[in-house]
Known about the structure:
The chain is of the alpha+beta class and 531 residues long. It has three domains: 2-165, PAS domain (Beta-Lactamase, 2-Layer Sandwich), CATH 3.30.450; 175-326; 342-515, Heat Shock Protein 90. It has 14 helices and twelve strands. It has helices at residues 2-37, 39-47, 54-59, 61-74, 108-114, 167-292, 298-307, 309-341, 353-363, 365-368, 393-420, 454-458, 477-488, 519-524; strands at 79-85, 91-94, 119-129, 134-149, 155-165, 349-351, 378-382, 389-391, 428-437, 440-447, 492-498, 502-510. The strands form three sheets. It has a five-stranded antiparallel beta sheet with strand order 2-1-5-4-3. Strand 4 and strand 5 form a beta hairpin.
Amino acid sequence: MIATGLLAVFYRQRATRDLVVVTEDENVTITQIFANTLWPQYGPFLSNTESLSNDELKTTQQFQQLYQQVLANVEGTAVLKVKFYDLQGRTVFSTDLGQVGDDKSDSSGFLAAQSGTVLSQLGHRDTFAALKQTLEDRHLLSSYVPIRAGGSSGEIVGVAELYTDITPLLAHIQQTQRTIVVGSLLILGTLYGILWLIVQRGNRLIKQQYQQLEASEIRHRQQAEELAKILVELRKTQAQMVQSERLSSLGQLVAGVAHEINNPTNFIHGNLVHFKDYTQTLLGLLQLYRTHYPDPDAAVQLAVEEADVDFLAADLPKMLASMQIGTDRIRQIVLSLRNFSRLDEATVKAVDIHAGIDSTLMILEHQLKAQPHRPSIQVSKRYGDLPKVECYAGQLNQVFMNILANAIDAIDEVSKLHASEHRNHPGRITIETQQSDPGWVTVAIADTGKGMAASAQQRLFDPFFTTKPVGKGTGLGLSISHQIITETHRGTLTIDSELGQGTTMRIYIPVRQNPRPTESQADRIPGLQGQ
Length: 531
């Protein structure tokens, strides 16, 4: 429709332009006829009317004769008015007597014709005084044409202005324009109807193919979802098997080492008491002997001096006290190893959470000590008053181990960066426990490490995802920890971290494993909604 409208507008502009050109040529021809037939007779008169007033000019015989001849010449043509100007711009003749004597010296049309150029102007008049009548609603073409004496190349002796009625021709152009529009629309409508039928046919075929493709896509999507579920289950099963094997191996190793160390340690620790008594008895006898026999034989005196008996008597109790402290330390380590492994607690039992955390810290103590690139990591414990918690103690200790080991690694990375910049970074781990809600215990472990981005936090509990360098992390620790807390113990494990601000891991675990959380608890504790 836009193309049809543009075509109709183009046609009208082109036809109107051609009409103006043709009408202008006709006006030039009529003017030339006037120049050849009337101007030789009336030209001298019209060129010398300066002395005549307008009324005198209109009443002269020559004017009246010229008026009749002009009417005779334009009769039957489309010319509605004729005007002649002398070279000074005075209207010396007009079929509209009221315009005789008008000054047109400033008119652009007169000036153009005076210089030898034909100028035409297309316009519309609501009313127009024609030769013998007044017309309404007319389209007129006004042409200013130079009057040349002796032919088209002669001298300009005056200017003629002709008003030509082109209303019928414009009406014909408009009718032709409407015909073009209607015809084009009919053709386009027919083509559109045919195209609509073709499109409808194609649309039905496309819908059928789309339905088939959609059904096929649904089948493939279902298969892909099933395969994805199977893959997730396989990865979880694999992670569980790996972690179970690790836990089992670690527990057996720790229990075996603890057992092997415990027996000789208990033997030494138990005999230290008797050894101390025996030593004190012997030292007492030696002192008694030296009291009663102050002057022993020279050989005995020499042996006493070489052995430095006084030093031995003073240092031996100190050495026994140091051995006592050492054996106590070994027994504490063995107890921590036994608490950590918990092989004798493979089922749910009520245990002391703090004991599990302390045993884990005891095992990790060598990593907490000062390293070449950093000072020792300070551990701040803010233990609340907690009841014993029903849990799988060994698995829960493994969760503590994974979170604390990750915290130490994060602090190490920041410390290495600061060490390269010759700055000291005193790392800190804060462990806080509390009974946050009736029947629920919260363990928060915060570090001053490098933190992590939000994108990494969203995938942190995915199996095999790790932020550590290649070869250092397996990506299973936190995944298994999340599974142990959420699935095995029906709790939640959350993370709160920001780059450069450290990380806080929070464990929410029920004190008893059988009750379900209330709605209020589910609202207050993150991750419990829907359980």
